[in-house]
Amino acid sequence: MTSSDESAGGAVREEIISFYAKHEKIHPREVIGGFSKLRRITVFALLGIFYLAPWLSWDGRQAVLFDLPARKFYIWGLVLWPQDFIFLTWLLVLLGLSLFFFTALAGRLWCGYACPQTVWTEVFVWIEAWIEGDRNKRIKLDRAPWGFEKTLKKSTKQAIWVIFALWTGVTFVGFFVPVIDLMHGLAHLDVNGWPLFWILFYGGATYANAGFMREQVCKYMCPYARFQSAMFDRDTLIITYDQARGEPRGARSRHTPRSQDTLGDCVDCTVCVQVCPTGIDIRQGLQYECIACAACIDACDTVMDKVGYPRGLIRYTTQNAMDRQKTRLLRGRTLVYGLLLGLLFTVGVVGLLNRKTADLDVIRDRNALYRETVTDQIENVYLLRVLNKQMSPRTFRLTVEGLEGAVIDGGAPRWLVAGGEVYTTAIRLEAPAATIHGGHTVRFILTDDVSGQRLLAEKARFIAPP
User: Fold this and answer.
1) CA angle in degrees (0–180, nearest 5) for 193-221-209
2) Angle value at C-alpha 404, between 400 and 407, nearest 5 degrees
3) Interacting residues of 309 by C-beta distance below 8 A, sequence separation 6+
4) Does pTM top 0.70 for this prediction?
5) Are 204 and 178 in contact (CB under 8 A)?
6) How do strand 394-401 and strand 414-417 relate by DSSP bridges?
7) 435 neighbors 462 (Cβ within 8 angstroms)
């Protein structure tokens, strides 16, 4: 933007004003406290699950494997098929509703502790601090001219970042390709295009998001930061600066008695700003950039301990509590979310425990409506696909009902189907021509031949002359 200003001598002076500021890298300061310990535990737990799960075995196979070519999804002892897609929908709805519930209850817990962006950024910052030093040393190193020390540290950091990001990509692909086969292929430089593409893509995304973009993903790319306020109310637990207690802020001697101190409890040390991974000042009020990591709480409590003031100048609290009003954590919104979560979870678990262990598809042959046999029978042909969802072989028996006099050619057929396999066959269904006219609905019954349990009943149409 260009502005004009006329000086005293009549000359016109132009000034260029930019509305865009260069991004300044944030160097979060290390903090020690209860919330930081909880965040570290969460990071190690989530990354441990992510990196170890593909290497675990279950019943002679990879414990967690989403085998897309075979359309089988192994999750420990559970095997899901495309026909079980409803359970994926259930899981996504459950996770979405959980996000609403915990946000309404305690703010952005997901962002502060469990979001992949937060988790991997924590690791990349730890690597950076391990190589380059604490916050002050990192700032000094960035401002220093390039030399041997700076080149060595920066190169070492980048090399470790790249290795860690690529290993993350390999682990991600290991959930979809048997990880032992994948590692064998990588060792012999024999990996086809798609696995290699996803290793580089996911590794590159991890490197860029956690290594360089960091808080910019949360501030500018994540939609959750934009609509979080719609799920907040005055009873939502949020990270808040107690302005009434802290203001007016200012530095003072550590030995100044509180009775003689005219300032608030905030000593204006700015440590709460230095530890913030998004670079905000929580003393200016709740901002959408805040990811609720609670680093500022730990930092402020540490300072309060040093100056001998009570903790809690920055704390988890509600707006009602700040205004000295009653806080209700259990209220209409949280109760409804909680009841829906409980109901949805129960229905899903019951559905998983009682899901069908076999599947039957019946497709009527459309090349011919019917055929009249020499024995005065009307014959319809069907293509059957029998899926054994269990991992052990089973024998199935097929019968038909719903049409008087209808029999399957050759009697009630029996098939041995291997575990996790699909058996395809054609059958002929016959009915007396003298008593059957027009279209009828029949039901094919699939039964476990050993236990006699009726598993499925699939409807189909039987066509006869009018």
Assistant:
1) 50
2) 45
3) 258, 265
4) yes
5) no
6) antiparallel
7) no
Measure the CA–CA gap between 417 and 420, rounded to whole angstroms: 8
Cβ–Cβ under 8 Å, residues 181 and 156:
no
For residue 440, count CB atoms less than 10 angstroms from its CB and return exposed for 0-12, middle for 13-18, buried for 19 or more.
Answer: middle
Write the pLDDT tens digit of every residue in 390-412.
Answer: 888 999 999 999 888 889 887 77
Question: Can you tell me the distance from the alpha carbon of 294 to that of 108, in angstroms, rounded to the nearest whole number?
Answer: 10
From residue 408, alpha-carbon distances to 164, 402, 447 in Å are 61, 13, 15
| Residue-level length of the chain | 466
CATH topology of domain 358-463: Immunoglobulin-like (2.60.40)
DSSP string, 55-87: G-EETTEESEEEETTTTEEEETTEEE-GGGHHH
CA nearest to 120, candidates 35, 240, 212: 212
Domain boundaries, the chain: 25-355, 358-463
| 34 neighbors 302 (Cβ within 8 angstroms) | no
Tell me what the pLDDT averaged over the chain comes to: 89
Q: Which of 18-27, 211-220, 229-238 has the highest mean pLDDT?
A: 211-220
d(CA 2, CA 14): 7
Q: What is the dihedral of CA 397, 401, 407, 410, to 10 degrees?
A: 0
SS3 310: coil
C-alpha torsion angle, residues 226, 232, 238, 244 (rounded to 10): 110
At a CB cut-off of 8 Å and minimum separation 6, what does 87 contact? 80, 348, 351, 352, 355
Distance between CA atoms of residues 267 and 248, nearest Å: 9
**pLDDT of 5:** 54
Question: Contact at 8 Å (CB) between 53 and 44?
Answer: no
On whether the CB atoms of residues 413 and 365 are closer than 8 A, the answer is no
What mean pLDDT do residues 229-251 have? 88
Q: How many CB atoms lie within 10 A of CB 255?
A: 7
The pair of structure tokens assigned to 448 is 């476990």
Q: How many helices (H) and strands (E) does the chain have?
A: 15, 18
